Amino acid sequence: MRGFRFWRCADGAQALRPLSPAGGFVARSGGEESRQRPPSRLAWPWRGLLTASVAAPLILLAVASWQNYRLIKEDTDTRAAGTAGELRQQALAAFETYESVLARIDERTKGLSWLEIENDSQLHRFLVDLETLPEIDNVWMADAGGRIRLSAHPLPALEGRLGEEGHPRAAEGKNAGLRVGRPHRNPFTQSAEFDLTRRRTAAGGAFAGVIGLSPKRSYFSNFYKNISHENGFVASLLRADGLVLARYPPALRFRAVGEASPLMRAIGEKPREGLLEERSQVDGVLRIDAYQKVGHFPVYVVFGIPEKGVIKAWRGNFINYSLFGLPAAIAILMMTLFAARQLRQQQIITWRWRTTARRLRSEIDRRAQVEALLRQAQKMDALGQLTGGIAHDFNNLLTVLQGNLEILKAAAQDGKSRVRIDQALATVARGERLTAQLLAFARRQPLRIESIDLNGRLKAMAELLARTVGRGISLETAFAPDLWPAKADPTQFELALINLAINARDAMKKGGVLRIRTFNRPRTEEEGAAGDFVALEVEDSGAGMPPEVLERAFEPFFTTKEKGRGTGLGLSMVEDLTRRAGGRVTIESEPGRGTKVTVFLPRGALETPQKGA
Question: Contact, 26 vs 19, CB < 8 A?
Fold first, then answer.
């Protein structure tokens, strides 16, 4: 069962509040959360929703743009590889034709001497007919010394023309096969060209010179010019070592691709075909290059598409996406903002309604509390008048009785009579103390408020308290070392402490622990304190009280003890003297978990706090 805390304040107001399992108060129902006005600015969840309404379309736009860029890039790579394949097919057909022509000339002249070759008119006409082919510029034959022995038209000697790897002497001792020479300029036509040569073998396998032809570079460049409609594309025919054999658009000063270039490194890693991004050494344009090897020949075709074409296509699609995405994002933002403002206005209206309802409920509660306090004050006043009248009359009787007993004591001769008269006087004294309590409760006798040292009083009463609670109950104390002085009536304070100890003893019928603790309690606005307090806490490990008993704990003459075991004035007197001293009393209790009573007395006037044990 949940515990309760019963407050008795200095002005007589009281309130019963349930405690949470952690010991704090449980918030009352009825709109406590509505006391704070909704903020004028949008709350963080709505700000996050507004941000998401803008961020989500932008993120989708970014993802779509990236996906579109990736697709355009893949399409460009595919087009580059496809076009390179067309270049490879064209170059492969041309080089197979070149290889076939050279092989046919070698077969036609096998076994013939150079004199027979030079005088063979049919062979000469055959060479002239070959030069009418669109891919061949000229065809010639040279002896082992490098002298042109047969050609369709005059040619210079091969010295300095083919380079070391193309000179007839370089082919000596090697098998027949097509070799690609270095690019050079024809001294007669001044056109750029390169030569393809084949070793001529005499009877017995001896080296007998070379058979060569010069392809038309225009045959390749014209095909490259018409192969693609891409702006800024480049198509090239390269020898395996990077020498440029043909290129479109032409680059007059560009002769070879460096061995350390990305293209040559890619060819070294993937010699058959591949794709790469490379910045051109001619014009500095970044291109997507696709290369493929031309059959078994030591040449490659390369086709490059500018990267800016990909960016341009992507930018156009991005603009189209933005024309739809941005208005949609703005529309979502405006709708979300409108919904947020409508909700905030609804929250303000709800807050105003709840505030009005709370004020009305508070006014109703305040009036009910005032009426309850008035009824309680009237009841206490009537009870006080009755108690005060009875106590006053009883005190008068005790005064007469005390006077007569003192006269009898003076006239008594034997000691036995004196002892009995002393016992009677002691009983009269106890009756006077009882009437003093009743008069104090009835407010007929003023309290003597002064600054006292609680720790000192408790130390002095330690033996009395131990005898009061009995042997079966363990007494534990914890005194604050720098305890402030407290304002109270010393006699009434001791009487209140004894009452609390007796109540604790009666609650622990099978024994237990009684804990007495003192501590300073500074000003706390939450508890409605008007200043600093000195606290006395009395806690037992007894049976505790249920909520319906705890609610009436401070009512005069209310008791759950057996008839004749209590008057019901103990806690009410503790509450009354504490309140009249300017303090308050709290009580906490749960069935089976004991009871804790805390008395808060005002801080005394002394500047220096009293030292405790």
Answer: yes
- Secondary structure E strands in 78-215: 136-142, 148-151, 179-180, 184-185, 192-193, 196-201, 207-215
Tokens of 607: 């500047």
Q: What are residue 300's DSSP bridge partners?
A: 238, 293
Q: Which residues pair with 237 in a beta bridge?
A: 246, 301
- Say what the pTM is: 0.48
> Strand (E) positions, 294-349?
299-306
Query: Which position has the token pair 């990077």?
Result: 242
Give 363-378 as a DSSP string.
Answer: HHHHHHHHHHHHHHHH
Helix, strand, coil percentages, rounded to 5, for the chain: 50, 20, 30
In the predicted model, is pLDDT for residue 444 greater than 60?
no
CB 508 within 8 A of CB 541: yes
Say what the pLDDT of residue 41 is. 64
Identify which of 214, 241, 273 has the alpha carbon closest to the alpha carbon of residue 89.
273
Rounded to whole angstroms, how far apart are CA atoms 311 and 305? Answer: 12
What one-character-per-residue DSSP string does 433-497 give? HHHHHHHHHTT-S----EEE-HHHHHHHTHHHHHHHH-TTEEEEEE--TTPPPEEE-HHHHHHHH
**Cα separation, 440 vs 388, whole angstroms:** 9
Does the structure show a pLDDT above 50 at 162?
no
Strand spans (E) along 508-594: 512-521, 533-540, 584-589
As a whole number of angstroms, the distance between CA 80 and CA 72 comes to 12
Q: Which domains does the chain have, with CATH numbers?
A: 74-310 (3.30.450.20), 446-602 (3.30.565.10)
Q: Which residues contact 428 (CB under 8 A, 6 or more apart)?
A: 398, 401, 402, 405
Write the CA distances from 472 to 469, 509, 512, 513, integer angstroms.
Answer: 8, 9, 7, 9
Would you place residue 14 in the very low, low, confident or very high pLDDT band (cuts 50, 70, 90)?
Answer: very low
**CA angle at 326 for the pair 320 and 330, rounded to the nearest 5°:** 160
Other beta carbons within 10 Å of 37: 11
